[in-house]
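look at this record:
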Amino acid sequence: EVHVVESGGGLVQAGGSLRLSCAASGFTFDDYAISWFRQAPGKEREGVSCISSGDGSAYHADSVKGRFTISSDNSKNTVYLQMNSLKPEDTAVYYCAAYLDSKRPPYYYCSGYRLYGMDYRGNGTLVTVSS
């Protein structure tokens, strides 16, 4: 049985940091491309950080570039999103998603329509950044 579980969200002051984790069971993350995307109330989903399988190349949206970093630990079958210098506009529910079609450039998995069609996805973790 497949499970994807995000964790690490919470309340943090502006300028602070959080590290989100995405743990998978029932499949191996290394075979999949991964996206971290977020959705704030009343807004569309936004792909923030994505990574392709194989060469592990990563993409970060302009809104988070230089502040967020995506990484993976294959021994733990877990993907991380390190978020630094958080801003109130980063407040959202953060999700990770996995794509079996995994060899495309990483920005592909952060693209709009791909955020609504994935092979696996967790239920999200809430990040709230106070000003």
Summary: The CA atoms of residues 58 and 73 lie 14 Å apart. The mean pLDDT is 95.
